[in-house]
Write a structure and sequence with these properties.
Layout: E1 3-6, H1 12-21, H2 31-34, E2 42-43, E3 46-50, E4 53-58, E5 60-63, E6 66-69, E7 79-80, H3 86-102, E8 107-111, H4 124-131, E9 136-147, H5 156-166, E10 170-174, H6 180-195, H7 203-212, E11 217-224, E12 227-236, E13 240-248, H8 250-254, H9 257-267, E14 275-280, E15 282-283, E16 288-289, H10 291-299, E17 303-313
Parallel strand pairs: 6-8, 13-14
Antiparallel strand pairs: 1-3, 2-5, 3-4, 4-7, 5-6, 8-17, 9-14, 9-17, 10-11, 11-12, 12-13, 15-16
Helix pairs in contact: 3-4, 5-9
């Protein structure tokens, strides 16, 4: 039997320590990251205890009668300790359903953590979702990922861009806070023109997050004579190098600045990380492909993994 309770600020240190030791957690689940947008989401994170010790934690928020594994995060279901078992997680899901029904929560959406982020096998939650909650996949997104231990060569289109770039006087800067505003202007301009949207994070939010997690969030910018032509903001976890944002100016696109940048970044030793994840190239619920993005990412040798979202009724 497990004790399941709501997370409170008083449990912050316990939560963070557990996330760091879990088999499928990343820095995105530390409270200093999660809570930067606490004004947008009604937090309903859960902690499951067994014999007085945390067994699993669920970053979550609530909206009306629906519990969401946190909507402000790209992925994230139950984070589990190494002692977590299939039987244990089935018990937790059953108890969570009983508690939800008693408190008026009728349904749940659950964003599973892709396996590339696991430090060891950690899909006990997926078994329990199906067999205890009768959950079904309601959206599936394709993300493009490189196994850095077994790389696929660049396509000719990416090699062509690289040749153009190498004929220029380009440099790569580890940008930090100093180049963040330059990159954000490029990013905002591209998203506005192409998709009529803004970045998920504001510039001030990203400044805050990079100051809190300087070792995990790093900006790399391609410059020519000091002028920024493009770049990428990377999220670094133990297993995965993830491109949170990628953008370039028109001049940067024309001269192959991003081909130059990723040729360098993919070739680096990111140990202990073994995967380079370009992120999703799908729209809406994942059923529509952004083919131009896929063409670029697959040109670097990336291939698909899935980011799945499950839904169930309590």
């Amino acid at each position: 039997m497990f004790e399941i309770e709501r997370y409170t600020l008083a449990k912050k240190d316990v939560w963070d320590q557990f996330v760091r030791q879990s088999k499928n957690g990343t820095f995105l689940f530390l409270r200093d990251y999660m809570d930067y947008h606490s004004d947008r989401f009604a937090d309903h994170s859960l902690m499951a205890w067994h014999k007085g010790r945390p067994y699993a934690v669920l970053p979550a928020n609530i909206d009306s009668d629906t519990l969401h594994s946190h909507q402000g995060l790209t992925y994230g279901g139950w984070l589990m300790g190494r002692q977590a078992t299939v039987e244990g997680m089935c018990s937790i899901f059953k108890q969570m359903g009983d508690i939800a029904r008693q408190s008026g929560i009728r349904q749940m959406t659950y964003k599973a953590i892709p396996w590339i982020y696991h430090s060891c096998p950690a899909e006990e939650d997926l078994y329990a979702l199906h067999h205890v909650c009768s959950a079904r996949i309601t959206s599936r997104h394709a993300s493009s990922t490189i196994d850095l231990r077994s790389r696929i060569p660049f396509t000719e289109s990416r090699k062509s861009g690289l040749r153009k770039a190498m004929a220029r006087n380009l440099a790569i800067e580890d940008g930090g806070q100093e180049r963040l505003e330059d990159f954000w202007k490029i990013l905002e301009n591209n998203l506005s023109i192409r998709h009529h949207v803004s970045p998920v994070h504001t510039l001030d939010e990203m400044r805050l997050l990079t100051s809190r997690f300087p070792d995990n969030i790093r900006l790399f910018v391609v410059t020519e004579n000091g002028k920024a032509l493009g770049g990428t903001l990377l999220y670094l976890t133990d297993r995965v190098v993830h491109t949170q944002y990628i953008s370039a100016t028109e001049e940067g696109k024309a001269c192959g600045a991003l081909d130059y940048l990723f040729n360098e970044l993919i070739s680096r030793d990111w140990s202990p990380a073994t995967y380079f994840d370009f992120g999703r190239s799908t729209i809406g619920d994942g059923s529509e492909l952004n083919n131009s993005l896929l063409f670029q990412k697959e040109g670097f040798g990336a291939r698909a993994i899935c980011y799945d979202v499950y839904s169930c009724v309590f």
